[in-house]
Amino acid sequence: MITKAIIPAGGLGTRFLPATKTTPKEMLPLLEKPAIQYIVEEGLKSNIKTFIVITSKNKSVIEDHFDTYPELDTFLRAHKKEDLLDGVNKIINTANFIYLRQREPLGLGHAIWTARHTIGKEHIAVFLPDDIIVGATPCMSQLIQIAFQEKCNVVAVQEVPIESTQSYGVIGIRKQFSPNLFQVKELVEKPKPADAPSNLAIIGRYVLSPNIFNALEEMHIGTGGEIQLTDAIQTLLLSGEKVFAYKVQGTRYDIGTPLGLLKANLDLALRHPKYAPDMIQYLAAFDRELVVMQGQIDTLKKTRTSPTIQM
Predict the structure, then answer these.
(1) Is 268 inside any structural domain?
(2) Burial class for 3, CB neighbours closer than 10 Å (0-12, 13-18, 19+)
(3) Neighbour tally for 138: CB within 10 Å
(4) Is residue 269 part of a domain?
(5) What's the domain count of the chain?
(6) Which terminus of the chain has a smaller tally of CB atoms within 10 A, N or C?
(7) What's 152's domain CATH number?
(8) Which helix (H) or strand (E) holds 302?
(9) Domain membership flag for residue 274
(10) How far apart are alpha carbons 184 and 186 in whole angstroms?
(11) HEC states along 2-47?
């Protein structure tokens, strides 16, 4: 059974500045919850109880969120609003948290390596908080099932346009077992489209053997001037360990950019019974406004491109 997960949350979040100058990007809201809470909830639904959060300076607000707040609890009870914290209080009462500092910004592989002393001879789950994945079956549960079924390491993958491969780690396929399950031949970090072994991109969920820490120990600085987790998994593969890739079932939101976060909020709101009716009504009215605005834009374009009449 896999009971521990690593959540790398030490990044500076520069794409969201100035919002992330004092607020970790993992705490930016998706509807009424911070993004990282979705990750922990997925972990708990996958029977994971211990979360090792890799942080950096000015990230203590993550610790505060997953901690008790007696004064606020008392206030909410007095105003009969205690249900507002039901979700996070359930997490506090169920999960265990370990917080470790990543002292140097040397990439994802280095962040995972930072947790080496907290893991024994056991497989470990890894959640990247930039990827929120929702579905009927928790994404991590799907990977754990494959890991035990095949006795292997597992990476989550998703098909992407071939021109987007240079933004991801990409797998090469040794054997395909089903429409969604693949044995991995190789892993390549951010290949150019012409060099990509497939269009199956690694997304932010992994189940890895404890030998990943030995592999990371041997890693040198790789693509982007960082220690790449993809390179370390490739080392596991070359050492004889099996690595499988699973095309996970569910909807993935990449919230690593402001536009991605906006899209995720909109989509989740439209799927939420509390917000959907008002959002649909709002968007219906907004759609009519867009038609008017688009007409104005088209008219302006025509005016700018019309030939000037010489007198």
Answers:
(1) no
(2) middle
(3) 22
(4) no
(5) 1
(6) C
(7) 3.90.550.10
(8) helix 276-305
(9) no
(10) 6
(11) CCEEEEECCCCCHHHCCHHHCCCHHHCEECCEEHHHHHHHHHHHCC
The residues near 256 (Cβ < 8 Å, ≥ 6 apart) are 15, 130
Tokens of 257: 């950019």
Lookup: tokens for 116: 């080496």
Are 162 and 199 in contact by the 8 Å Cβ rule? The answer is: yes
Spatial contact of 8 and 39, defined as CB atoms under 8 Å apart: no
Identify whether 119 is part of a domain.
Answer: yes
- Which domain, by its residues, includes 68? 4-256
Q: For the chain, count helices (H), then strands (E).
A: 10, 13
pLDDT tens for the chain, 311 residues long, are 899 999 999 888 889 999 998 899 999 999 999 999 999 999 999 999 999 999 988 889 999 999 999 899 889 889 988 888 889 999 999 999 999 998 887 889 999 999 999 998 899 999 999 999 999 999 999 999 999 999 999 999 999 999 999 999 999 999 999 999 999 999 998 999 999 999 999 999 999 999 999 999 887 666 666 788 989 999 999 999 999 999 999 999 999 999 999 999 999 999 999 999 998 888 888 777 776 666 655 655 555 554 544 43
